[in-house]
Write a sequence for this structure.
């Protein structure tokens, strides 16, 4: 095999690895309890990039992750579960679009289905859904393509 052939094979292998890496996306899903506290705890690192959006949109000053999951999407048709002591979010990805992913979301309180909806998760911005009021706080469903 000549130099040109080896270089072509190496370049092809590198391109294939790059395309495979681009095809997979990591999605972080969280069950977040939003409350107002006199002395708020520090914001979890997973929510750093959307802190202002959460505070401005929902009016709370404290956000605690009570359940979470991370999933690598290879085909865009995976499913996963983020759960806490009482709540769980079942995410069923239905395919990839140019801008993101089509999802079927189901929120459960223990075994009771509270919410079922279809949503689009953008690769450029998070998806935040207001869940039920829980005590003095609000449950938020947060999904982010990382």
């Amino acid at each position: 095999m000549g130099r040109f052939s080896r270089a072509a094979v190496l370049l092809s292998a590198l391109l294939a690895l790059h395309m495979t890496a681009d095809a997979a996306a990591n999605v972080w899903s969280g069950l977040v309890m939003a409350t107002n506290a006199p002395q708020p705890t520090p914001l979890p690192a997973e929510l750093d990039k959307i802190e202002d959006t959460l505070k401005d949109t929902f009016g709370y000053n404290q956000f605690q992750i009570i359940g979470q999951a991370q999933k690598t999407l290879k085909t865009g048709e995976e499913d996963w579960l983020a759960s806490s002591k009482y709540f769980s979010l079942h995410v069923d990805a239905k395919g990839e679009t140019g801008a993101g992913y089509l999802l079927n979301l189901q929120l459960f309180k223990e075994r009771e289905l509270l919410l079922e909806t279809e949503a689009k998760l953008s690769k450029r911005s998070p998806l935040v859904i207001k869940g039920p009021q829980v005590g003095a706080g609000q449950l938020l469903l947060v999904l982010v393509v990382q």
